[in-house]
Write a structure and sequence with these properties.
Number of helices: 3
Number of strands: 0
Number of domains: 1
Helix content: 55-70%
Distance between the termini: 42 Å
Strand content: under 5%
Order of helices and strands: HHH
Shape: elongated
Radius of gyration: 16 Å
Oligomer: single chain
Largest sheet: none
Mean pLDDT: 95
Length: 50
């Protein structure tokens, strides 16, 4: 069995554990910047699945 409070880290807890305080927010910022820059390419790719 997993001790959910001491052995399982998800999202913010996980990334801040790996990269230090603020790592999760930094990661989200990176994904947002790349998403904005590549919006046209991303939309073109996913338009194949409509």
């Amino acid at each position: 069995m997993i001790d959910l409070y001491n052995e399982l880290k998800v999202a913010k807890e996980f990334w801040d554990f790996l990269g230090g305080d603020g790592a999760y927010e930094d990661l989200l910022d990176c994904f947002e910047k790349v998403g904005i820059e590549m919006r046209d390419e991303i939309d073109k790719y996913f338009s194949r699945f409509k």
